[in-house]
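Subgroup meeting minutes
Present: P.N., E.W., G.H.
Scribe: E.W.

1. P.N. recapped why we're keeping a running log of single-chain structure predictions: easier to compare across weeks, and new members can see raw inputs and outputs side by side.
2. G.H. added today's entry (138 aa).
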Amino acid sequence: MSNKEIILVKEDISSIARYHYTACLIFFFSVLLFILAVGAVLLGVTQEHRFARYFNVVDLSFRIGAMVCIFKLATSLKEPRPWIYIGGMIFPLVNFVVLAYLIHKATRVLRANNIRVGFLGCSKEDLNNYLSGNWERK
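Output recorded in log:
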């Protein structure tokens, strides 16, 4: 990654805030799916079980949606090669590192623009104040 200064406009900040929230939810559900998968292995669930078939469908559709969101977050952050993050989302455990990195980077950008960021995204009030041009917190 280069250390060049990246200029972000209000639309970029708005999309970063939207996809930051979604990435936080994806991280939470990724952890939940990982725990379910480990539990299924420990309980001896094989691919012939009905649970395994449904779980695979849910996991696949979730990963496709997560890849789209992560790609959009990476492009909103003006990452030079956003498609690399899609590749990282394919592999288990690597996806946690990819998500944590992008969430951290989005959090830094939002905080640099005087927008408070919590566990599941930014403050809607601060974001609306930023977008309207009123940068002072109430």
